[in-house]
Structure formats: C-alpha cells, structure tokens
C-alpha cells in the first residue's frame, strides 16, 4: 500500500521524501519540479535478505593509507540484461532496488565499501588514530555508500539528462552531502559518476555514487599539503590564472571549466565555482541552476570528441566535513583515458608504480579539441534553457 510521508521542499521547486527498503536501508526520492509522479510511494515488498557484515580496512604502513576490504562487493551485479536492471523501477518480473517509478532516487548500496555505521571496538577513534603508522593495523570501514539513480531509463549517463533532471540530481548531491557530512565518523563526502565499461562500469543504467569516508582521502591530504605550502588563496589564484589563459572551455556567471595546466590524462577538465564554497551543500540555488546547463554542455562536448561515447570519471572533490572548510573549494575533476578514437591510456610502470605521470597530449591541444567538440555538441544537442518554476507547482503536489 502506498503511503504519504513527509515531503521536504528543496530549492528550485524540487521535493524529496525518505522511505525504507525491505532490509532497512534508506531510499530517498527526489522529484522534479514538474514531476507527474503521485505523492505516495509503495513499500518495498521483497523478502528482506541479511545485510553483509561491515567491511574492514587495513593500513599500508609504507604510505599510511587505508585499504577497505569489502568482500561482499564480489557478488554485485555485472552487466545484467536490461529486463533485470537492478536500478530500474520494480516490476513483477524485476525485483529491483527501487520499488517505485521515480525521477531521481538515492539509496544505500547493498554491498558497500564503507558502512553502515556500527558501534565496534575497532572503529576509527578520530583522525589522529588513523594517521598513526603501525604494523597490521585494522579498523572497521565505517561510513556510507549510496547509489544515485539519475533516471528510470535503462541506458544513458548524466549528459543524456534534460536540464530539469540534471538540476534535480544536483539538488540531490547537495542534500545528501549535507546529511552525510553530519553522520558520526564521516570525514569526507565524495559524489562521482563512472561512465563506460572501459572505466569498469558494471551497470549501463544512468547513475552515480556517493562515498562517505571515515578519513580524509589521500588525494585531499595532498591538496591540504599544497595549501599549507602555497597559502589559502590557492583555488582563487588557479581560477584567475586559468580564466586569463588559453585552456578555458566554458565560463558562466558562477562557474568556469578549463583544462588544467598540468593535465595528466588525455582528456582532463576541471570546473570551479567563482566564489568559495566548500561543498555542494554550500552552493546557492542560482549556482545550481547554472551548473545544470554548463555541466550538460561540458559532458555532451566530451562525448562529441569522437563518434562513440567517451568513458570518463566525473569526480566532485569536496572539502572534508570538519576541517579546512575555508581553504578547500568544491571542484569537478573529470578524466578520461581515451587518447584517440581507438586507443586508451593505460597506467603502466611509471604512473602505476611510481605515481610519476607522462602526458600524451599537450593540455593546450586538448583544450582546443574540447572547445571544438563543445561547439559541435551545442549545435547537435543544444541544452534547453532553464525552466521557470511556477509558484503553483508545490501547492498542486
């Protein structure tokens, strides 16, 4: 039987409502401002299965980094047929993870790399505990991993969404960043999208993920070291330099996208907000509105580089939950290993073993290629203008 829970009103006329899956996991529906879905949602009628034990993590004493050992992930779905898509709305023949039709749905991963949070003697006891070096140190992988379903469609990616739907996904990122950052022992929240089998994607359904870590990730720790060395204006100075240079791709009132000066990957794009915001939760409604259009243009341009879709990782780097909030700025880092129409860059000896990168394409050439591709995409697949939200939308739902 459907029931009507509390409906939260978010920015841009978007609403959300939270439910539980049969095994107790959370699922949150985010509805477009012009959604035609009914307010009620059916309960998950599946027979609940036991949830896997929380993963554990082990410290590498050579680097101090933590490696999560999540054996339950071995059993996750791998390129299932379309009729058994686990992210499509449930049907009599497809007992998927999402009980209802939806616009955007976010739910706890069935086989998470981190979490759910449990009270255990081996939990991390603050950041100092995790930064100490020892032999055979273990801790419980507390945290949380969520799946973000961009659309009920069975194929596609963020770039294939409408502007309205893209805006709803961005709202979901902001709201989940706010909620996840408040969880016990969560130190950093990371929204991302893996796209393409070349990246290792196991589901064709348009979706992304959000990881919530119990530690500050190695990449962010390196960034903090750079800020300590350079000073707190690092992001502002990078943005100013790139806006004045030849690697700029897109610039709006609130966001700029560019190929970075020291790009590692054949395709690498960074995007920064013009003012300092630590994460999605700090962005304004106007910033989210503009991002929906600019981000779609960028992704469609990346796909227009060649005749076939481009594999990529779209990584939204955010400040840690409780430290360096005034120094670390929200930033997209989109990377692709595709160095030609029929060639991929593989991380071999120097990159994989030593972390010493060798670029294949000069960043300035890559920027020109991307500008041309964005122009082609703008003609072939123009992004629709931002829709105004009638004041009666919320009242009628």
Detailed description of the structure:
There is one protein chain. The chain has helices at residues 126-131, 163-181, 218-230, 234-243, 285-303, 349-354, 363-380, 392-396; strands spanning 8-9, 15-20, 26-31, 56-59, 66-69, 104-108, 138-140, 144-149, 188-195, 207-213, 248-251, 255-258, 267-273, 312-317, 331-336, 338-340, 343-344. It is an alpha+beta fold and 397 residues long. It folds into two domains: 8-216, HIT family, subunit A; 220-380, HIT family, subunit A (2-Layer Sandwich). It has a twelve-stranded antiparallel beta sheet, sandwiched between helices. A hairpin with an 8-residue loop joins β12 (255-258) and β13 (267-273). The longest helix has 19 residues, at 163-181.
Topology:
Layout: E1 8-9, E2 15-20, E3 26-31, E4 56-59, E5 66-69, E6 104-108, H1 126-131, E7 138-140, E8 144-149, H2 163-181, E9 188-195, E10 207-213, H3 218-230, H4 234-243, E11 248-251, E12 255-258, E13 267-273, H5 285-303, E14 312-317, E15 331-336, E16 338-340, E17 343-344, H6 349-354, H7 363-380, H8 392-396
Antiparallel strand pairs: 1-2, 2-3, 3-6, 4-5, 4-7, 6-8, 8-10, 9-10, 9-14, 11-12, 12-13, 13-15, 14-15, 16-17
Helix pairs in contact: 2-5, 5-7
């Amino acid at each position: 039987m459907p029931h009507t829970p509390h409906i939260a009103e978010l920015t841009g006329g978007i609403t959300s409502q939270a439910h539980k899956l049969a095994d107790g996991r959370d699922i949150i529906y985010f509805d477009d401002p012009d959604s035609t879905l009914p307010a009620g949602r059916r309960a998950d009628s599946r027979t609940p299965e036991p949830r896997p034990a929380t993963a554990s993590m082990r410290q590498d004493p050579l680097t101090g980094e933590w490696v999560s050992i999540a054996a339950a992930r071995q059993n996750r779905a791998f390129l299932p047929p379309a009729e058994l898509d686990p992210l499509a709305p449930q049907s009599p023949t497809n007992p998927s993870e999402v009980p209802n039709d939806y616009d955007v749905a976010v739910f706890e991963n069935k086989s998470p790399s981190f979490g759910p949070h449990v009270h255990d003697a081996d939990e991390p006891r603050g950041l100092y505990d995790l930064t100490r070096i020892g032999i055979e140190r273990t801790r419980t992988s507390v945290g949380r991993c969520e799946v973000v379903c961009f659309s009920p469609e069975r194929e596609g990616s963020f770039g294939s969404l409408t502007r309205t739907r893209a805006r709803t996904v961005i709202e979901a990122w902001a709201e989940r960043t706010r909620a996840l950052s408040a969880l016990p022992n969560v130190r950093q929240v990371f929204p991302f999208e893996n796209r393409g089998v070349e990246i290792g994607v196991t589901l064709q359904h348009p979706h992304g993920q959000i990881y919530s870590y119990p530690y500050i990730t190695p990449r962010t720790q390196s960034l903090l070291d750079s800020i300590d060395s350079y000073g707190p204006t690092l992001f502002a100075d990078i943005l100013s330099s790139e806006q004045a240079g030849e690697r700029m791709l897109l610039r709006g009132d609130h966001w700029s996208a560019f190929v970075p000066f020291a790009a590692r990957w054949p395709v690498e794009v960074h995007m920064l907000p013009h003012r300092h915001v630590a994460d999605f939760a700090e962005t304004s409604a106007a910033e989210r509105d503009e991002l929906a259009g600019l981000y779609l243009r960028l992704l469609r341009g990346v796909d227009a580089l060649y005749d076939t879709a481009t594999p990529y990782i779209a990584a939204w780097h955010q400040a840690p939950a409780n430290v360096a909030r005034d120094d670390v700025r929200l930033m997209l880092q989109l990377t692709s290993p595709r160095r030609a129409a029929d060639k991929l860059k593989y991380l071999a000896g120097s990159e994989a073993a030593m972390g010493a990168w060798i670029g294949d394409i000069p960043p300035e050439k890559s920027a020109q290629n991307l500008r041309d591709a964005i122009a082609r995409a703008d003609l072939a697949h123009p992004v629709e203008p931002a829709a105004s939200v009638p004041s009666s939308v919320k009242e009628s739902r």
